[in-house]
Amino acid sequence: MQIRNYLEGFADREAALRKIAEVDETAFGEGFTEEELRSPIFGVLDDDRTFLAWDADQVVGVSANFSLDVSVPGGSVPTAGVSFVGVRPTHRRRGVMTAMLDILHADGLSRNEPIAALWAADAAIYPRFGYGRATRRLFTEIRRAHGALTNAPEDGSIRLRMMNSSDDYSLTHPIYSAVHASRGGVPAVDNRWHERQTWDPPSSREGASSLYTVVAEDDNGVRGFMRYNVKPEWTDSHDNGTFTIYRLMSRDPAAHAALWRYALTFDLMAKVKWFNAPIDDPVQLWLEYPRHATRQFEDALYVRLLDLPSAITARTFSTECDVVVHVTDSRFPENAGRWRIAGGPHGATCRQTKDPADLALDIRVLGAAYLGDASLSEFAKAGWIEENRPGTLGALDSALRTDTPPYCPFVF
Ligand SMILES: CC(C)(COP(=O)(O)OP(=O)(O)OC[C@H]1O[C@@H](n2cnc3c(N)ncnc32)[C@H](O)[C@@H]1OP(=O)(O)O)[C@@H](O)C(=O)NCCC(=O)NCCS
User: Fold this and answer.
1) Under CATH, which architecture does the 307-400 domain have?
2) Where are the domain boundaries for CATH 3.30.1050.10 in the chain?
3) Which atom of ligand 1 is nearest to the CA of 86?
4) What is the model's pLDDT at position 31?
5) CA 232 – ligand 1 centroid, Å
6) Per the confidence metrics, is the pTM higher than 0.85?
7) Which residues are catalytic?
């Protein structure tokens, strides 16, 4: 088996993309249409970071790295965004994905990307490769009949304006960038990502409307936006439509509440759904009848520290800490061993040491805690961390955790 750049062996890019579509269809049960192959979905694919696995003259696996810049506490970090991983069913469990991940990780390291991140099709797949669940998402469904908001701020100066989402970039990008700067887990997006996320051909709508954006603004400019579509449905002659939120971001609570009110009072829509809300979205506090809302917390972004010291020093800590951690890493011996992890709100250091270890843990634990969401004390209760010096577990926990939980706004 050989892993090669995806363009090798094909007459042109279109032919190579067609092969990706073919293999992904066998792996996922759904591929890409000709229209999708020529769409912005593939505009973000880096030609030199996309790979095919070959068994003799047959392509049996696909994978790619996106070049991402993911926010972390105190800044952002270049990230190998692992995606498109699929293996032909005839070649499963023979190490094809393992070999492709080795290539993707080496590719990330060669570009000075200290971490890799991905959305997993199945939570069981990636921990063995050193990934930890670094962000969670909230799936929520709120019925309009139970959608009254109490104690949500109101601001009469806010006006709402609608447009097709493909036209919203200049208005919404500053809001997105502010979120990128204020919480971990958010990949920076440029125009190519915007085109990918707002590409909305009628053939993919499955009975829903176009993708719209409604912005909340006042005389000083845009304060928030919501991307959504609506899908009408009639059940026994009453309306039973669905309002689906794809993105909701705002600068302040009043703008956020105005956008939620817009969704929760939309005529003919019986329910509002958002499959990827931040776990701290304030609607949970504003709902008069919160028990009637579906609130399901799911795993979202997985993170793998490829270069431990570079990853740690790329972020700041919430509180001061100075601990020696013994790290195991079965795939990257460079990360294994004893590290003195020290720092605070102004920056962090991570140096190899011969001092006795205060804590012992696997690299996946640091991946899970890296963006600020994980609770190390929970991990210790699960037997994933050994504490040799009392107090050091709490010290590292407080240092890595952030007040605002990390959030990845889109699947890649
Ligand atoms: C998931 C998938 C990519 C795995 O590819 P593969 O080539 O079979 O994986 P490997 O043979 O390299 O497996 C490596 C290890 O992961 C385990 N593993 C692989 N897929 C797994 C899964 N879906 N669930 C649990 N464990 C899995 C294997 O058992 C193996 O474990 P071992 O090292 O203890 O023997 C492939 O089965 C596939 O394409 N599935 C459908 C699409 C999909 O889910 N893609 C992932 C997108 S994020």
Assistant:
1) 2-Layer Sandwich (3.30)
2) 307-400
3) 39
4) 83
5) 38
6) yes
7) 126, 412
* Location of each CATH 3.40.630.30 domain in the chain: 2-113, 138-297
Q: How far is the CA of 62 from the centre of ligand 1 (A)?
A: 13
pLDDT tens by residue, 324-377: 999 999 999 999 999 999 999 999 999 999 999 999 999 999 999 999 999 999
**Which of these, 63, 62, 97, 65, lies nearest to 80 by C-alpha position?**
65
For domain 138-297, the CATH superfamily is Gcn5-related N-acetyltransferase (GNAT) (3.40.630.30)
Which ligand 1 atom is the nearest neighbour of the CA of 100?
12
CATH of domain 2-113: 3.40.630.30
Has residue 237 got a pLDDT over 90?
no
What residues are paired with 149 via a beta bridge? 287
Alpha-carbon span 304 to 65, nearest angstrom: 13
Q: Is 271 left (phi over 0), alpha (psi -120 to 50) or beta?
A: beta
**Looking at residues 56-80, what average pLDDT do you find?**
98
Per residue, the 3-state secondary structure of the chain, as one string, reads CEEEECCCCCCCHHHHHHHHHHHHHHHHCCCCCHHHHCCHHHCCCCHHHEEEEEECCEEEEEEEEEEEEEEECCEEEEEEEEEEEEECHHHCCCCHHHHHHHHHHHHHHHCCCCEEEEECCCCCCCHHHCCEECCEEEEEEEEHHHCCECCCCCCCCCEEEEEEHHHCHHHHHHHHHHHHHHCCCCECCCHHHHHHHHCCCHHHCCCCCCCEEEEEEECCEEEEEEEEEEECCEECCEECEEEEEEEEEECCHHHHHHHHHHHHCCCCEEEEEEEEECCCCCHHHHECCHHHCEEEEEECEEEEECCHHHHHHCCCCCCCEEEEEEEECCCCHHHCEEEEEEEECCEEEEEECCCCCCEEEEHHHHHHHCCCCCCHHHHHHCCCEEECCCCHHHHHHHHHCCCCCCCCCCCC
The protein residue whose alpha carbon is closest to atom 21 in ligand 1 is: 125
Instruction: Give residue 93 CA to ligand 1 midpoint distance, Å.
Output: 6
What integer pLDDT is reported at residue 299 of this predicted model?
98
Alpha carbon nearest to ligand 1 atom 3, residue: 86
337-344/347-352 β-pairing: antiparallel
The atom number, within ligand 1, closest to the CA of 98 reads 12
97 Cα–ligand 1 center, Å: 6
